[in-house]
Fold Glycolipid-binding domain-containing protein.
Amino acid sequence: MPRGRYSLHDPHDHTPLAEEHFHCAPGPSGWRYVSQLTAPSGDHLGSVDLALDELGRPLRLELHAADWQVRGAALDGVTWVRTDPTGTHATEGNVRAHAFTGTSPAFLVATTRLLRLTPSSPATRVRLVAFTDPVLAPRTVDQSWALVKREAHATDNGPLIVDEYQVTALDTGERHSVHIAGDVVLAAPGIELEDLETPPSVFD
């Protein structure tokens, strides 16, 4: 079960935004990721709890940020309920999309589990519902993912397989790279892996 810590920063000006302490593991139903977020000041910012089925679809998502809450799952596309800080107003949403995304590295791993790309796969289009900080506002985004390189790196625990993905935002054409080993993000815009206590999980 990988445990560790990511630092999250603004990808444009590198302003520190949060630290995300996480643990994740494959299970009988698929994969689960749980994390707590803290501000640079040390204040609690929120949490992420994401469970995927064996096909990479979101079985359950629960996000907390600034007293806002989102619960979601794959149902007729993706469906979610967003609750305001007072708890008096809850709004339901549904979009014909494949999965969810957001600032947590968990969503990058989840997208790769859903797409199951190989280096010979063509670039694949995916529609995602993004929950944007700090109020978890939903926004539908279209992306293209391609696995451009797969490399084995020697480590004390045997070879570590690192996949490099190229992700394109289809509304702006902006491209960036994401490096993932198993169920751990090694590098991506706005994300740095600061600490990892155990090696990434190896998926079949």
About this structure: The two ends are 15 Å apart (CA to CA). DSSP finds one helix and 15 strands in the chain.
